[in-house]
Every structure is written in C-alpha cells, then in structure tokens.
Design a protein that fits this description.
With 302 residues, the protein is an alpha/beta fold. It is 40% helix and 14% strand. The protein contains eleven helices and eight strands. Strand 3, helix 1 (44-51) and strand 4 form a beta-alpha-beta unit.
Length: 302
C-alpha cells in the first residue's frame, strides 16, 4: 500500500492522492474525509479493520489538503463574509468536490462504490448520491448535516476552536490540532492524544495550507441546503452521529436521516465530532453490515 496520484484532465485539472486497502476485487468502499482533514483522518488501523470485513477500502485527500491539488491561484476566500451569507468568494462548491471523487472512481475503473463520508465528507457523499446516483451503491453519512442552517448548528466554543488562528510552525500545528479536538472531540471517550499528535505532524509534513482550508469552508457555505434533493435519493443509506457533537449538532444527523428515504440512523452516546478509537470496531462493523445488505439487495434485484 502506498500513496498514488490520479492526474486530472483539462485546464482546471485536479490531481487526487489516494491509497487502497484490502482485496482490489472486493466491494469498493470510498472514504471521504471532512474539512481541513487529510486522508489520515481515516486512520490506517481503521481502514485495515474495515478491509478485514472483506472490503476494498479507498481513502484520498480532497482538493486543497494533503497531496492532492491545491487551488493556490484562486481568489482569496472570505470566511467571515461566507459565514454571514455572502459566498461570492467561493472558488468551488461541494458539487466540484463530488466531481473530483467521481473522477477518482473513473481513474480507478470503479463503476460504482459504497460512499462513506464524515463531516464535510458526508456532505460530499450526499452530493454524489444526489448528482451521480449511478456511481453510488450505498451511502453512509457520518457526523454531517443537510446544509439547512436550522439544524446541525455548532456551539460557540466549537466554532471558535475551528476558526482559531492558523499555526505558523509544525509544533504549533500539532498543539492547535490537539486543542481543537479537546473542544470538538468525544466527551464520552478518552482522547487518543498520541495518535492525534502523530497524524497532525504527518499532515503538516505532507502539506500545510490554511487558505486551502478556508476555501473548503467557503465551498460548504456556497453549496446550500440539500434537504429537498436528498428526498429523491434512492440508495441504501446509513446515518451515524454522535449525541454529543458540538461542531455539528446531532440534529444535523437526524435531519439527514429524515430526508433520506428509508435511512437507518445510529446515534452514539458520548461521541463528539471525531471517530473515537474505542468505537472503531462497532463503526467498521456497522459500515460493513450496511455494505453487505446493499450488495445482497443488488444481487437479488432489490
């Protein structure tokens, strides 16, 4: 297993860095990570555990993070204006990020996959299901929301942590990451500080681009409310959320499940806006079971 790069085409090409785990012939599960977070947000042990259920697992860097393309030539993103409703500084939207994901599937010659997204990644996964339904075998949306500002609100403390000034050194970046997750992480589980520090250091070494993170945040704000379009999605859907998520309130997960026809909703007490290590066995088992049900339904023509 090693990082590979899919090179985009055309004048606005986006190169995508990815890794694969498991049997390339097994059902494909594409993991889409959230705001400011590289593919490392799906830890290697988590991916290996998911692959251990007989699945092919693919994780990748979204545009503007990690080893994928960064939009350095884009106009400066105006985050305060976007949060106030003016998204004119957006360089792209979640629809463009969904197209990046579909382009990765194209390059890997994967006609369709089970799409699993966390936080902003859940929003991208929802957008793929809405706009490219033929590429989606099942949808799993984790700690995400619909884009309706009335649900999934952040606490003031969580929003302040997310918008805290960017670091200027590697050590500051690691400390900032730990500080943020002390606020937005899972109160019911011990923070895996050692693992978090290790991943934060690796992430800094791979690519550190605060303006890229700001571009992603503006893209979220520019993409609007998906609720009405989610009601037309016709794929097996699983929604997972933490009952104690301060960054995306559990109402966002409930609204997502309510909008997606026939969706299963699973709410974990004590879980915040992260993937706590003690929950990895149950999270991977639930995702794998959802995938198997979708595969069985497809085999039977359901």
């Amino acid at each position: 297993m090693s990082v590979e790069i899919v090179h985009g085409a055309g004048p606005a090409r986006v190169d995508i860095a990815y890794e694969r785990f498991g049997d390339p012939g097994a059902p494909p599960v594409l993991l889409v990570m959230g705001l400011a977070t590289q593919m490392l947000g799906w830890p290697e042990e988590f991916c290996s555990a998911l692959a251990g259920h007989g699945l092919q697992v693919i994780r990748f860097d979204n545009r503007d993070v990690g080893l994928s393309s960064h939009c350095h030539d884009a106009p400066p993103p105006d985050v305060p204006a976007a949060l106030a409703g003016d998204t004119s500084s957006a360089s792209y939207t979640l629809s463009d990020m969904a197209l990046d994901t579909v382009g990765l599937l194209d390059a890997l010659k994967v006609p369709s996959a089970h799409i699993v997204g966390a936080s902003m990644g859940g929003m991208i996964a929802q957008t793929i299901a809405i706009e490219h339904p033929e590429r989606v075998r099942s949808l799993t949306s984790i700690m995400s929301t619909t884009g309706d500002d009335r649900v999934g609100q952040s606490t003031q403390a969580a929003l302040a942590a997310l918008l805290s000034p960017p670091a200027s050194t590697r050590e500051e970046a690691i400390e900032r990451t730990v500080s943020v997750f002390r606020v937005i992480g899972s109160p019911g589980f011990e923070l895996d500080e050692a693992g978090l520090r290790e991943r934060a250091g690796i992430a800094y070494d791979r690519a550190y681009d605060p303006p890229g993170v700001a571009r992603q945040l503006v893209a979220i704000r520019a993409s609007g409310d998906r609720t009405a379009r989610l009601r037309a999605v016709d794929v097996p859907a699983l929604v997972i959320h933490g009952a104690d998520d301060p960054l995306v309130d559990v109402s966002g997960g409930r609204a997502t499940a309510h909008a997606l026809p026939g969706a299963e909703l699973v709410v974990f007490d004590g879980m915040g806006h992260d993937l706590p290590r003690p929950l990895w066995p149950e999270l991977t088992a639930r995702i794998a079971a959802h995938v198997e049900r979708a595969e069985a339904s497809a085999r039977s023509g359901g």
